[in-house]
């Protein structure tokens, strides 16, 4: 794979999401058509998903959970974490690309401007903080990208489903049936999701935000459900309620584009205040 930095990979992933799920509309080209056309950026995204789908097995995810949910990597205040994440900025174009803090603020400020409750604003501000995984040396394919359940059959509604053929779980009878290791409508709380920044930040915030906010954190990249409804057979009633909030959140993540980039310095006190209402003084990563 052509070497791309974590930040470039994210930009490519986001551009790809916008092509798949454009604002107020249909994809510009029919799915097949635009998947077949040669484009070096698409090739990079495709290769990214090949590696992702190949490696995100049930055992891999359990291993990552064991490794990272000890939260023994780093202890930071919210703002230290925000600044730490911002060190991910590399050779992106400063004129057109937002840095990490600006993406968080753009999302949360759009939520605030629409008059949503403060926990929703805070959730918007926190939603990508799990990308600090990149700074702990984790490869891009297990930090960003669409997420999906592991331990059961992969839906063909997941982006590039053909790459799951190479995933050992798809040949393992424990994991390759509709329900796999799960029970019908067992609830997503009982389901392991592919490892990435969503699961990580959800687990960090688990004790501090209302469950609607936690659902936004955990499922914001789970496009196969919130856009394609491919996993309703694992969801319970509560999940369906919570996904109304996930749906509410997604456009702010994907489409909010402020005319003027948010002013980080001016906004900092508001967010530190908000954090002190919900979060402890330091967060364990
Ligand atoms: Fe994200
Ligand atoms: Fe985001």
UniProtKB/TrEMBL annotation:
Keywords from the named record: Cytoplasm, Iron, Metal-binding, Oxidoreductase
A single GO cellular-component term on record: cytoplasm
Signal peptide: none
EC number: 1.13.99.1
Recorded coiled-coil stretches: none
Subcellular location(s) of the protein: Cytoplasm
Cofactor(s) for this UniProt protein: Fe cation
GO annotation, biological process: inositol catabolic process
Principal subcellular localisation of the protein: cytoplasm
Keyword Manganese among record annotations: no
UniProt protein name: Inositol oxygenase
Lineage of origin: Bacteria, Pseudomonadati, Bacteroidota, Cytophagia, Cytophagales
